[in-house]
Amino acid sequence: MDSAGAEGIKDPSARFTELKAVTIVFKYPLAREARIGFKSETGFTRAEIIECIRGGYRKIYAEERESAPNSKWGIWGHDIGDLMIEGVDVDADTGIVHVCIGS
Question: 61 versus 6: which is more confidently predicted?
């Protein structure tokens, strides 16, 4: 998860959404759901939304380290390097992006 680049993304320059603002929902492997907003003047390509997801996880894991031992997010069972994006879906009406993460 923590690596950058478009490797492994099918058609990375394809448009993911025309929406200029989205909220990505992060659930796994968190005990408490996190929602982080992202903006783009031109919408998001597949590669851009994947980078937003990676950036969101980097932020969450950094906040978790800083909040120890109180555990802001309750990350359990996996380091960030264990995580893999398996699917991404956007609700075009709300701009909510749901991410399926495996490990």
Answer: 61
Task: Kindly state the percentage of the chain with pLDDT values over 70.
Answer: 96
Name the average pLDDT for the chain: 94
Whether 4 has a pLDDT exceeding 90, the answer reads: no
Strands 21-26 and 84-90: unpaired
Task: Give residue limits of the domains in the chain.
Answer: 15-102
* φ, ψ for residue 5, nearest 5 deg: 105, 170
- How, if at all, do strands 44-45 and 34-39 pair? unpaired
| Residue found under tokens 């359990």 | 76
